[in-house]
Design brief:
Layout (H helix, E strand, L loop, with lengths): L20 H8 L3 E5 L2 E4 L1 H20 L3 E2 L5 E3 H7 L1 H4 L5 E4 L5 E4 L4 H11 L8 E10 L14 E11 L2 H21 L4 E6 L7 E9 L5 E6 L5 E3 L20 E4 L6 H8 L7 E8 L3 E8 L6 H8 L4 E3 L2 H8 L16 E4 L8 E4 L5 E6 L9 E3 L17 E16 L1 H6 L2 E3 L5 E3 L1 E8 H11 L17 E5 L5 H16 L4 E4 L5 H11 L3 E5 L7 E6 L5 E5 H13 L2
Parallel strand pairs: 3-7, 15-17, 17-20, 25-26, 25-27
Antiparallel strand pairs: 1-2, 4-6, 5-6, 7-8, 8-24, 9-10, 10-21, 11-12, 11-21, 13-19, 14-15, 14-16, 18-19, 21-24, 22-23, 27-28, 28-29
Length: 568
């Protein structure tokens, strides 16, 4: 493609609303343009990268036995009401009415639609397992769209769904999809980790997220420094054996702690180590129940673990008013002593506290020398805290380290949740009706494009991996007014195309400095510059990744380029 015949509107200045590298560079290099907040147009370069990623996804999906289809973005609300997600998905679900006042949603995901199709079309175990996928635009009304393609309101996603007659069949396809995802992200050149994850609003269990390592990632990965263990920090179990110290238990005493509300403030006021503190948090469970949740002063309660422990759909901290109504004190003075009317749930670390301190359920007062089982009773002990760096790895190998990650893929074992609610049944070998078992597998395709840029760029611009670069080669003519340079460029352009290379030919009547700056910004794997030595039949080649430069005779270009692209 000749540069003069396409649209590549590069910018010198950084967009004022862009905070991260991928957002800045994809806009500056002419790959995308914002149409509305969280909504982007993919310009010709951006569309080519998107299609490259999509092709990798298609190839690996087909190898895994998945078949492509396409479902509507516009979905009837009735399907979402059947599963209950119309009511509990949240404000991110884009809802609308047609001219007849019928309710619809713009697809944030497609479990309802695909399950209704399979319910109507698949009746026998002989058609199972079956895995179907699509690549399609999704819509979620993000409260705060940010980071360009990483958190938008409209985005391109690959979603796949599998249907089974046995759990063993689901396990088999899940493993195939896990491998396919690993292959996809490897082929995209990404440094990533597959981590144990929470299924969230999707439901189901046994899920993994695929995280691209990046300092701007919004998720924290807890991983072992000596093994393959990795989990989203929300799901990482704590494998610590807590032991009580040998000091003698003292009698509980109430003390004034004016203006000391946080664990740090109380610890400093009492001049007692914070790990002797009993942090007491009142949680509201599924809108109408409450529980007092205890953690050691230096630990933080993990609300995902708490939700799973209680089998709840939703947990949140109670308000100041609710705390006063139930326990009679401000939130900073809550504690478990003499609490009768609500259950007390504690993290395992509480078992090791001797002569600790906690709120006295009187504003501005705390107890010291508090001991579990003696001064209060815990209804249930569980692993409820966030894992910390330096903790033992849950698999018993090494210690935990943290890294930031961008989620680009997620695989779920959904089980029977959607099939039961939508009536997706089949006849088994004995002619008896049974409910199907499901799996769900998603990749953020447009998000993957941004994640690639986050890992592959420098101060000059993007550095595309060969597998996803919009073009293979950037051919630059230094002076288009020079007939020898232009003639040689045209000749090289045709020869490269004949050898099946995708070439961006910069034939613009611009200064050489502008062309070189744009070339570095756009970031194609290799640049061929036709300049002063054109009359001798020589060109300059530059590798974008490492900046290596070398001269080649025109007769050496095709063999050298073939060798370059054959190397990993």
């Amino acid at each position: 493609m000749k540069h003069s015949q396409t649209l590549i509107p590069t910018l010198k200045e950084v967009p004022t609303d862009a905070e991260i590298a991928s957002h800045k560079l994809l806009v500056r290099a002419g790959y995308v343009r914002q149409t509305a907040s969280g909504v982007y147009s993919f310009l010709p370069l951006g569309n080519k990268v998107l299609k490259k990623v999509e092709q990798i996804v298609r190839e690996e999906m087909e190898l895994a036995g998945a078949v492509e289809m396409l479902m509507p973005a516009l979905q009837p609300a009735d399907l979402w009401k059947e599963t209950g997600r119309w009511y509990n998905f949240g404000p991110e679900l884009m809802r609308l009415h047609d001219r007849h006042d019928r309710e619809f949603v713009l697809g944030a995901t497609h479990e309802e639609v695909i399950t209704s199709i399979i319910r109507d079309e698949v009746k026998s175990y002989k058609k199972l397992p079956l895995t179907l996928y699509q690549i399609q635009t999704k819509y979620r009304d993000e409260k705060r769209p940010r980071f360009g393609l990483l958190r938008g309101r409209e985005f391109v996603m690959k979603d796949a769904y599998s249907f089974h007659d046995t759990d063993e069949s689901l396990d088999d396809v899940y493993d195939k999809m896990y491998l396919a995802y690993s292959n996809i992200f490897k082929r995209c050149g990404l440094n990533f980790r597959a981590v144990i994850a929470d299924s969230g609003a999707m439901g189901g269990k046994d899920t993994h997220e695929f995280m691209v390592l990046s300092e701007i990632g919004e998720d924290t990965i807890a991983y072992s420094d000596t093994s393959d263990f990795a989990a989203n920090i929300e799901m990482a179990p704590v494998n610590v054996e807590y032991t009580r110290n040998t000091e003698q238990e003292q009698e509980r005493t109430i003390v004034d702690t004016p203006s000391a509300k946080t664990m740090e403030e109380v610890s400093n006021f009492l001049n007692v180590s914070i790990d002797k503190g009993i942090k007491s948090l009142l949680f509201k469970i599924d809108e109408d129940k409450f529980a007092l949740v205890l953690a050691r002063g230096d630990h933080e309660i993990n609300d995902i673990k708490l939700k799973n422990c209680l089998g709840a759909t939703h947990v949140e901290l109670a308000s100041e008013e609710e705390a006063k109504a139930l326990l009679g004190a401000d939130i900073g003075s809550l504690g478990p002593v003499n609490v009768k009317e609500i259950p007390i749930i504690a993290d395992n670390a509480i078992t090791s506290i001797v002569n600790g301190y906690c709120g006295a359920n009187e504003t501005g007062k705390h107890y010291i020398n508090v001991n579990p089982n003696k001064d209060f009773t815990v209804d249930k002990y569980e692993d409820l805290r966030f894992i910390k760096e330096g903790d033992p790895s849950p698999d018993g190998k090494g210690t935990i380290q943290f890294a930031k990650g961008i989620e680009v893929g997620h695989v779920f074992k959904l089980g029977k949740r959607y099939a039961e609610k939508l009536g997706a049944q089949y006849l088994n070998e004995q002619g008896k009706q049974e409910v199907m078992t499901m799996g769900c597998y998603g990749i953020g395709v447009s998000r993957t494009v941004a994640a690639i840029v986050e890992q592959f760029h420098d101060e000059k611009g993007i550095i595309w991996p060969k597998s996803v670069s919009p073009y293979d080669i950037h051919l630059v003519t230094v002076n288009t007014k020079d007939e020898e340079q232009l003639h040689l460029s045209e000749s090289i352009y045709k020869e490269l195309q004949q050898n099946h290379f995708d070439v961006l030919f910069d034939d613009r009547k611009e200064r050489a400095g502008v062309k070189f700056a744009d070339s570095d910004l756009i970031g194609l794997p290799i640049r061929i510059t036709v300049g002063k030595r054109a009359s001798e039949g020589y060109v300059e080649c530059k590798v974008r990744e490492d900046g290596e430069q070398f001269d080649l005779h025109v007769s050496e270009i095709v063999p050298s380029i073939k060798k370059f692209f054959s190397e990993n």
